[in-house]
Amino acid sequence: MNTLKKASCGTMESSDAYMELEPIEAGTQIELQSVVEHQFGDSIRALAAEMLKEEGVENVKLSIVDRGALECTLRARLETLIGRAREEAAHA
Amino acid sequence: MDKVVKTLKEAIQLAGVKDGSRISFHHHLRNGDYVLNMVMDEIAGMGYKDISVNASSLFDCHLPLVDHIKNGVVTELITDYMSGGIGAQISEGILEKPVQFRTHGGRPADIIKGVTPIDVAFIAAPTADTMGNMTGKIGKSACGSMGYAYADAMCAKKVVVITDNLVPYPLPYPSIDETYADYVVSVDAIGNPAGIVSGTTKITRDPVGLVMAQTAAKVIQASGLLKDGFSFQTGAGGATLAAAQFLKEIMLKEGIKGSFGCGGITGYMVDMLNEGCFESLIDVQCFDLKAVESIRTNPKHTEVSAMRYASPDAKSAAVDSLDVVLLGATEIDTDFNVNVHTNSSGKIMGGSGGHSDTAAGAKLAMIIAPLSRARLPIVTDHVFCKSTPGSTIDVLVTQKGVAVNPARPELAAKLKDGGIHVVDIFELKEAAEKLCGQPKPLVKGDKVVADIIYRDGTLLDKIYNVR
Lengths: 92, 467
What we know:
CATH superfamily of the largest domain in chain B: Glutaconate Coenzyme A-transferase
Radius of gyration of chain A: 12 Å
CATH topology of the largest domain in chain B: Glutaconate Coenzyme A-transferase
Largest sheet of chain B: 10 strands, mixed
Strand order of the largest sheet of chain A: 1-2-4-3
Helix content of chain B: 25-40%
CATH architecture of chain A: 2-Layer Sandwich
Strand order of the largest sheet of chain B: 1-11-9-6-2-3-4-5-26-27
Number of helices of chain A: 2
Number of strands of chain B: 27
Number of domains of chain B: 2
Oligomer: heterodimer
Helix content of chain A: 40-55%
Structural class of chain A: alpha+beta
CATH topology of chain A: Ribosomal Protein S5, domain 2
Number of strands of chain A: 4
Shape of chain A: globular
CATH architecture of the largest domain in chain B: 3-Layer(aba) Sandwich
Number of domains of chain A: 1
């Protein structure tokens, strides 16, 4: 498992999401603020947890500010975020 | 006889405000209004309680009203529209009695009928003379039409005119005249000019919005209504304004001379008047400076009362002669019922205004809305609250096709003949859900925070707090 550095991606535009990933001591924390919390909050948290697990990313805090992004957008942003966090670590 | 009173406090005393009084305000100064807060602060300071406030609309500049509610100064709200800041507080349940939402036509009808009698009307007047003749067309706080204030002036037991441009008697061409005014108060400013015209929306540049707008113009053309004598109203939303722009191009190209444009008037409608698309404008409310300038200088741009605009009790109202109205929606269900009261969290952030009045009156009532907004499908099984009944809505225009109310098969046939992509409303719902996923429905709380009273006085729906 590669080490990770703090990274961010996305925007605060409507129908997009802004995300930050940073390493922590232990465990995986997911923080979500969403304009569609009522309708999709649980499914967004589940998607994020699943993608982190698939990528083997742990001991991180993931913060998502969701402005009503579609699932495909959220997946793309998460993929980029994890990639950037690894890249940052590789360059460090 | 002297109607001019030195201070607002004195006017409130003379007008006989007491515990339990119902007082009223108009909303022509929109989000720049100072008068409602000025009056309410004074009334609170004088120690009155249990006041009923009937305001034709409430904006977030009126947030201090929330404190007056929490302190028991205000215990009843009657309005046609409420912005999201105040709406969120009301949705929390800060008011014991449900807010009474009416329509722009239903409000004056109920004032005149005595369903909601007014003790004292406080009328913000951009210009007034010493006997209370008033107009919105001139003055530093000019707002143009004063249409929503007519019923209040005519029916309130006492009328207090509040102006920041007091002129000698007689003011020529008043909108509302001295026969209704009891007291006149001069203040430094009745509003912030920047906020008075803040409602203006620019034409959308969003490609999805432009596709919908172009489709809407084609629907109007295909409906057969777009011919000499055509009459039209549009909301001030970005996509509906763009549709008006496309419509104007068609009318100019084909030399169609319409009869009138109606409603809240924007500069875009003024352009249509000046370029010959309409014979006149029927204006209950000006949305921007261009509209204010036009109503002041162009006799074809007519100021009308809310009764003539939309009252269901008037012998006739302008909405009864409307061919087409373009409207927005936060949600529409598969029975074509429309929600314009609550947002995606179920919290109040709007109201009917003239939505259901124009939908009921127009021959063709069109909703323009994208398939989804911020991951939420616009078409739902059941709207969270019913603002306008589906029986009065004819078509829904989206970027993925046009759904026609099944009660209007002849219209669907005409649109198909005109090359419009007509789809079933259920198909639009499925397409949106495929894109967005299936949203979990909002859970209604157990406290009614607002009643939605239809233009005929019947209870159309209730808004609950959200858990």
